[in-house]
Amino acid sequence: MNEEIDQELETSPQTNKGVSPVKIIVTLWISFFLVIFYESESLLHYTNAKKSNSKGEVIKKLSFEDIYIEPLNILSQAFEDFKTATGIRGYWSEEKKLVQTLSESPLILTKTRLSSAPKASPGSEIKPLPHKPVEKKDIKPSPPYKVLLIGDSNIREAVGIALEKRFMKYKDLVVIREGVYSTGLSRPDYFDWAKKLKQFILKYQPNVVVVMMGTNDAQAMYSSDKKKFIPLRSKTWDEEYKKNTIKLLKVLEKEKIFTYWIGLPVMEKAYFRRRMARVNRIQEESAKEFQNVRYIKTWNLFMQNKQIQRFLKYGRRYYRVRLSDGIHLSILGGRHFSQYVLAKISGELGLTLKANKVKKIKTKRKLGGMQK
Q: Contact 36/78 with Cβ under 8 angstroms?
């Protein structure tokens, strides 16, 4: 039997297992059109801005950019018209319903079904929590300053890098940056920021702390006694999240460290925008209960005429404010954000910029054909 099979294999024609070049080209073109279809709105804004910017200019030399802008604009407009005609444009911009349902499900990060969890009423998410605002006294620290930046991926990446660079321009100031990916205040069972902050304070001895976190926090969480798992839609979620925020701020209050809590800017996607507005509200209410904490609002920083600003002009070009996830700021977005925040902090602390060192350039002068 085995011999017959071997003979059949030997006599059967050898198949070519290589990938056809035609298939590769077709796959690349399909991927190209899918990307344009998905990002048609952003591409349309970008190409329209480029076209309006080039109006009235005399084109001396045709560049590669001039060649692809017009076809890209036409294709993006065609896809936008198609989305509008088929009724999927609003659905597309609001995020896929399946993804939204899964992300809001209390079964995520849980092992048991919580079908009995109460559903929040329409106005419950924006109802302010009970808080005790205190009168802010002038308890600012005196120089020299040692500034500690802490937070999630925003501090780890564009925002934190831009803030650190700007802080370094001031006199009598040292800055340390500690950002940790995928962390926040909802899941101290995964990463306990209050505990980690105590270690950072012991290590660096800062007298100013700048906090920015929250983009990972709109998720189900454990209660403070770790006996219940509270879904995001639960009425008690806000109370538990505030407890975790207060716990972090009490560490700073005990050490008498002056603190700036930076609020999150408006988000691109509607469902995530609502969640971050909820997180911002709780963080701001918590900050009001401490004399040593100042809350910096940034929600409207990327809003223009009540519309979300997706692009920033730098020179003659337009660049995205955020990365493709619609959450994290781009390098240029981070610079713009840090400029606004540092203006608030430097004004209150009375920071002074370092003097620019002017380098003397030695020049060689020709005198009578000789160099001197």
A: no
Distance CA 286, CA 180 (A): 22
The verdict on residue 268 lying in a domain is: yes
Report how far Cα 159 is from the mean position of its chain's Cα atoms.
8
Residues of the chain with pLDDT under 50: 9, 12, 15, 56-60, 62, 94-126, 365-372
Task: Return d(Cα 44, Cα 36) in angstroms, integer.
Answer: 10
Overall number of domains in the chain: 2
| CB atoms inside a 10 Å sphere around CB 220 | 22
SS3 at position 247: helix
64-84 burial: b if 16+ Cβ within 10 Å, else e: eeeeebeebbebbeebbeebe
Domain final residue, candidates 64, 93, 122: 93
Look up residue 221 and give its DSSP letter. Answer: E
100 CB neighbour count, 10 Å cutoff: 15
The answer to whether 264 and 152 have CB atoms below 8 angstroms apart is: no
pTM: 0.63
201 with 55, same domain: the answer is no
33 within a domain of the structure (yes/no): yes
Q: Are 211 and 266 in contact (CB under 8 A)?
A: no
Domain hosting 27: range is 21-93
Q: What is the pLDDT of residue 81?
A: 74
What span, in angstroms and rounded, lies between the C-alpha atoms of 47 and 51? 6
CA–CA separation, 332 vs 304, rounded Å?
Answer: 17
Residues 65 and 144 in one domain: no
Is there a single domain that holds both residue 78 and residue 149? no
**38 in any annotated domain:** yes
**Three-state secondary-structure class, residue 113:** coil
Name the residue among 257, 225, 261 with its Cα closest to residue 344: 261
pLDDT of residue 90: 57
